[in-house]
Amino acid sequence: MDKKSIANRIKDSVPICITGVIFILLTASVKTLSVNGNIIWNAGFILKLLAFSIIAGTLFGFVINELVSFGRKQISLPKEEGVKNSLPIFFVSFVVFILSFVPYFLAYYPGILAYDSYIQIDQIFTGNYNEHHPLIHTLLIKVSLYFGQKIFGNLNAGVAIYVIIQSIILAAVLAYGVYLIFKSGRKIFSIAVLIIMALFPFNGLMAVSVTKDIPFSAYFLLVILASSELLKKRNAVGKIINTLLLFIGVLGCGTYRNNGKYALAFALVVSAVTALIILIASKKKSDKKSENQVGNLNDLSKNYVFVCATVVIALVLSLVLTTVVSKALGAVQGDRREMLSVPIQQFARTYVYHAGADVIAADDNTMDEASKALINEFLLYDSAKLYKSDISDPVKRNTNTWVVTNKTSEFVKTYLRLLKNYPGDYINAFLALNAGFIDFTDETHAHVNEAEGTFGLGYVQTRWEENSLYEKGFYKDTKWNSLFNFLERVTNNNSYLKIPVLKYIFMPGIYLWIVVFACVFAIKRKDWKSMFAFSLIAGYYLTMFFGPCVQLRYIYPVMITVPFIGLFLGNEKTE
To answer: 207: Cβ–Cβ under 8 A, 6 or more apart, which residues?
Structure first.
């Protein structure tokens, strides 16, 4: 191997090595924080962290780049539209996914009424609706309960109807993803994805959980699949079908979660920039030798405009629909405190460490009185002392948002003053809250909801608010008792953490870095077709980073998207 070849390989690995440095930097910081409980960000620690991250991250990035390069040489990817008449695989996959959900449905019949479902059911019974939970989803539950009561004479049947509808939506979108992989010519890979996703226990458990996050996850994946198809050259029928699917997906994302709107808005901005880059690139390739490339770039630019226009129309319709439904139901505005989760944690941490709160021995009582006063007005009832590093809920429940809206200037000044005085505590609060998303070995996500003496609050939540639900006519009625008992044990005990190596596919941290490295590889290869999908995932992660904690239901949209990541990574450079 000559010097020129070695130099080219090193140059080729630079973007991945930089990503490797960031990966080691963040994971090492989170690991240090979780082990020690606190990090003092002095010059000595920062220099050691940077030195370790640069050395280990560069080596890690180089190895990853070499492995991927070797893999691409060994595996010849098929051309697009590799298999015709591949529609039967969709129906086969759909049936397989439905059948894979059945054991969980029987075990947890009529469904898992955990998470926020009991709150939505209470709204249905009282007629006092709140926008904090998506009203479209609440209405879907209401309609299901109505037909269950009307046809079968009991509310349990209504829950079962909801679960069946949700399972069909999830199975259909997953099957569509498998179909697209198969159609592209990757037959073996499509079968592997089908088997893995059918056997992945979180899919079955989530399919039967009555929560907005599951249909949202399906719609999220549908947006990515359909938009990725539209950014490729497709026939007229394929374009019509995927346009309709994209429209449905965006409508679902926009009505089922507020952060779905924010993620889509972020993707639109990135897509606009991407389209501009493509347009500039097409003008540079004006000679006859590049005529074909210019045509491809122009087509891709037009496809981006079309996708963005479709997303905007569907997103606007989702806003209109949400507003109309809210007014029709007389719903009150939802709780906005969740959006303040990170500032809440940062205020609470600085208070505990520097306000003389007598919570920890390390408290140096150096905080100024004005800051203490505002924090106590913002975080009522001395709730800053309830600070728990991995979840904002204990403090958030007692947050007085009036301070933010009516004392905005004072709030911002205090926030910035404490940031200036205690930047390390702000960093620690953010990293600790998002440890599960950042560090693929972190296990705090599995215990964040646990309460002493309470069963069913593991990473997968299965606990019912039984007293409240039983009074209304809902009750557990398992049709497979032995499986129910087994699943309750493994979910409550977070048994996946005991599985060597394979446990990491269940843990949230691994998914961030798969997406990040895949995105960098795509940018390195100038694969502009994939930018909408990656920017949508990035936008969604940004909303999660500022959320209240790490939860399975929050990361689930990314979990089911990652197996299909190859679909929106183009086979060839777009340049």
So the answer is: 101, 104, 105, 163, 166, 167, 170, 171, 214
**Residues linked to residue 391 through DSSP beta bridges, in sequence order:** 388, 549
Tokens representing residue 348 in the block: 């609470």
What is the mean pLDDT, run by run of 10 residues, along the chain of 575 residues?
Answer: 68 92 97 95 96 97 89 60 76 98 98 92 94 94 97 96 98 97 90 96 97 97 95 80 96 94 95 84 59 65 91 96 94 85 96 94 94 95 94 93 93 96 97 96 90 82 87 94 96 92 94 96 88 96 95 96 82 47
481-492 and 87-107 helices, crossing angle to 10°: 90
Q: Give the list of residues 6+ apart from residue 342 with CB closer than 8 angstroms, or none.
A: 392, 429, 430, 433, 545, 546
CA atoms within 13 Å, Cβ hemisphere of 130: 14
> One-letter amino acid identity for 513?
W
Q: Is the distance from CB of 315 to CB of 255 less than 8 angstroms?
A: no
DSSP codes, 363-385: ------HHHHHHHHHHB-TTGGG
Classify 464 in phi/psi space as left (phi over 0), alpha (psi -120 to 50) or beta: beta
**Residue 272, token pair as written in the block:** 């606009």
